[in-house]
């Protein structure tokens, strides 16, 4: 990056030099300058994810920004979107995270302080940040580009929702034809007790013949037309079913439909 892109860093360094306590402070000041240089404006400290448009936006660091030099939290705004900058010191490494509050997307970069910051009280800025062009390139590619160029990483857990067949699929005939609803059972749906439509035949009193010969029907169905029956009618039953059924079988005499002979129920005849 050309040297002219360091515009504003020297002024910021001089304004905050008296407040710097260690290399961690110097590193966060450098990251803050880089964000401001790329259009971000500071709106305070903390990690509150709510945005108040009435808050003042500034290129300067807010008061109390380095109150805890082990953990930093600064709020920024760009294009009416809120960002939160976190800096966490772990041993000699500064881990920097930039969170987009609305989408919960986050980018991160890690810097070894001893290899990145030579001193926090040197007046010569070129001696403070080691290979400053390389560090700016890292901030651009690892911190800014993932959020602002569409290649962001998400801090929220991504849940893959697999589409599974619903218990019933409804197929509606389009308008113009007869309106009907057909309920289809998915091929992968298992029925209880091993499948096969257990109990379905018991719902059809004519399950033995009309139901496709699968057996079933009522235990005492009106025509007793279960498997193995030759006579499709109950002996002595006064049933004259109405079609469509197979041709009537000639009943043996006496025909139960005939009237009994005179005196049939007289025990003395």
UniProtKB/TrEMBL annotation:
InterPro entries: PI31-like, PI31_Prot_N
Predominant localisation class: cytoplasm
One of the GO BP terms on file: proteasome-mediated ubiquitin-dependent protein catabolic process
PI31 proteasome regulator N-terminal domain ranges (all copies): 17-153
Subcellular location: Cytoplasm; Endoplasmic reticulum
Disordered as annotated region, ranges: 241-269
Pfam family, one: PI31_Prot_N
Keywords from the UniProt entry: Acetylation, Cytoplasm, Endoplasmic reticulum, Methylation, Phosphoprotein, Proteasome
One GO CC term, this protein: proteasome complex
UniProt KW Acetylation keyword: yes
Entry keyword GTP-binding: no
Protein name per its UniProtKB record: Proteasome inhibitor PI31 subunit
Species this protein is from: Anopheles gambiae (African malaria mosquito)
Gene expressing this chain: 1269770
């Amino acid at each position: 990056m050309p040297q002219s892109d360091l515009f504003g860093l020297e002024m910021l360094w001089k304004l905050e030099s008296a407040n710097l306590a260690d290399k961690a402070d110097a590193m966060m000041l450098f990251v803050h300058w880089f964000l401001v240089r790329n259009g971000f404006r500071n709106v305070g400290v903390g990690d509150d994810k709510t945005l108040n448009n009435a808050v003042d936006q500034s290129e300067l660091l807010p008061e109390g920004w380095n109150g805890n030099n082990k953990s930093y939290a600064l709020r920024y705004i760009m294009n009416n979107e809120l960002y939160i900058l976190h800096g966490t010191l772990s041993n000699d490494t500064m881990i920097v995270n930039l969170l987009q509050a609305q989408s919960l997307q986050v980018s991160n970069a890690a810097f070894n302080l001893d290899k990145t910051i030579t001193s926090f009280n040197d007046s010569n800025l070129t001696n403070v940040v080691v290979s400053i062009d390389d560090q700016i390139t890292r901030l651009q590619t690892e911190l800014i580009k993932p959020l602002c160029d569409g290649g962001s990483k998400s801090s929220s857990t991504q849940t893959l929702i697999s589409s599974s067949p619903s218990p019933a699929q409804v197929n509606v005939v389009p308008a113009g034809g007869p309106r009907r609803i057909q309920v289809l059972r998915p091929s992968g749906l298992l029925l209880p007790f091993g499948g096969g439509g257990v109990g379905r035949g018991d719902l059809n009193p004519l399950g033995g013949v009309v139901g496709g010969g699968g057996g079933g029907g009522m235990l005492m169905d009106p025509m007793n037309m279960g498997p193995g029956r030759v006579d499709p009618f109950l002996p002595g039953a006064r049933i004259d079913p109405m079609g469509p059924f197979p041709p009537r079988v000639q009943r043996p005499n006496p025909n139960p439909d005939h009237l009994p002979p005179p005196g049939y129920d007289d025990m003395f005849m």
